[in-house]
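=== RUN LOG ===
request id: a7f3
mode: sequence -> structure
chains: 1
length: 261
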Amino acid sequence: MALRSRARTRDGEAGASWNYTTDMDRSEQGVARYLEGLSLGSVCFEPDGNVPPDFLVGGRIAVEARRLNQNFESDGGYQGLEHVEAPVAKFVDRLLPTFGEAPAGKGWWVFFYFWRPFDWKVVKREMKAALEAFRTNPAPAGLQVHLDPNFELEIRPATIVVEHHFMLGGYADWDAGGFVASEIIRNLNLCVAEKTRKIAPYRDRYAEWWLVLPDRIGPDLNMDERRSIGDHVDLLGFDRVVLIHPNDPAKALVLAPSGPT
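=== RESULT ===
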């Protein structure tokens, strides 16, 4: 089935067609493949332009798409864990080689551990200072220090030949993890609430609304675990919520008022 678009211009005329790979993000591409596989009619991407829904199926089913990821909740709202983890890891990866090569191949492993919130500006400044001080005056056993109350730096001697004076040994995001099913339930309820607010001004345009999410938390749960999720998720403004496997969109957990399938 071909994917089509009939994005609207301000005058209500059909807009330009969309490119399947360049105009959709990775999650939207997975959702598009899932919807096409249902054979419920034509699948249109952004039928009303840059407003909900993301897809229209068979001219009647409005579909919103969003990846299901882990989020950190605070008084100011929530954000995906990767919004903090990725920049931190990238910064450390770039910082460590600036301290030069390991003398005679003898260097140090660097580890860091964190949980939110922490002051990123302070951590960057203190990390540079701590590594510079340690390079100048190393302790044979290494170092373990808090750069922020919620951010810990550890340096251990490398027992193998290494390229740089400091090498990244690993890190831990203590906000990540937890029991997989409970994390899916917690984050899925956040996503449903977020999308329900987003579609509210457009809810009356279409009789049926779905939310389809590529599952980035626990796509390989067993059947018993998957069935338990539906008992703890409020569908709110959606007639159906669907979790799809990010690598195989045909594998789906469908949550509907009648129960999961």
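=== NOTES ===
The first strand starts at residue 3 and ends at 4.
The chain has five helices and 13 strands.
=== END ===
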